[in-house]
Amino acid sequence: MITGEIKSQIDALWNAFWTGGISNPLEVIEQITYLLFLKRLDDLQTLEENKATRLKKPMERRVFPEGKDPKHPCIIFFV
Fold it and tell me: N or C: which end of the chain has fewer CB within 10 A?
């Protein structure tokens, strides 16, 4: 059984979907999975940027095309 902080985060996310009009559990799970996937891509991009900065070399692998990063991200990740 999931308890503690993780359960609170899942409940908050579930409530956000519910108030946004998504009440089908399969749709909620689909959207959570998509958000986790996007979060992982963002983490990989950040790791590559940090590595390039540390080594003072250009990035070897870009997850997102150069120049396409928003200056003010509008997505907030709950995970």
Answer: N
30-57: pLDDT as tens digits: 988 998 899 999 999 999 999 999 999 9
Domain boundaries, the chain: 23-61+72-79
The token duo for 1 is: 């059984």
Distance of CA 53 to the CA centre of its chain: 22
Expressed in angstroms, the distance from the first to the final Cα of the chain is 19
Most distant CA pair in the chain, distance: 48
Question: Which amino acid type is present at position 11?
Answer: D
List helix spans (H) across 1-79. Answer: 4-19, 25-55
